[in-house]
Fold:
Amino acid sequence: MTIYLDVIWILNICIDFMIIQMTGHLVKSKTRGWSLIAAALFASLIVFITVYAPGHFILTPLGKLLYSCLILLIAFGFKSITLFIKTFFVFYFVTFAIGGALFGLHYLLQQPYHWSGTAFMTQSTGYGTPISWLFVIIGFPICWFFTRKTMDKQALTNYRSDQTYQTIINLADKTIKVNGYLDSANHLTDPISGDPVVLIDLYAIEQLFEQSTIDALKTLEQTYDLNGVPADISKNIHLIPFRGIDSSPSILVAFRANFISLECNGEVLHFKRILVGLKFSYFTTDQLYHCLLNPELFKKQTFVS
Structure:
């Protein structure tokens, strides 16, 4: 059996670099490219140990753990024991996540590659068939890409979940309950009263108003003409000027809520003198929340129950 060690080594340098790079991305560690390259080169040396010294201490479970620590020290240095331990576990999580994804793809396609426990190799001829090498070379980056995207999306979802509150809005003689997201960038206030403005999207709007009223309010947003709006709700309408993302001036249709309540840490916070602005679309495609809360809201807190 012939083993093309140089090809295996180069492949593992690339794989090790991608694993280390993703680890740094997930732990938000600022590193220079040369330190990642140096760590990947050092990590790939285990290929030679696997081939020439299969009984070496480095290949034992304890040896691999110590070797991993050296890899992380080269890549990220040592800032604190807490951060190092976190990085260590993320490093192995990434390794298992990508390795598991590639193993699943291998199981599906039955391609002849092999994970020796320390390095990727291909089977059948010692250096692998062109198809098996193509599988590893293409399959690993694909698994790396989708693993990273999934982790990034989950991190964003977790962040949003930490900032999300069950929100009760009493408006237009109706009470609805939706998820509200505390948006630190939302400091919109009524220029006349100075009251904070929270925003609700189409999901919440459709629970508060009939479709004919929604259509009239959409028209009002464009024409500023109250004639088409039912008289029983027109008296509570506020037109609030603001600038959109493109800095162009716009008018926001808003109503003064009777009250707004938030469920926070097992308590209920109540707020009055709050304006509710209407956005006639959805805030997010996943519809994780339907209300953008204003940090200024907490200055209007009346009581806690």
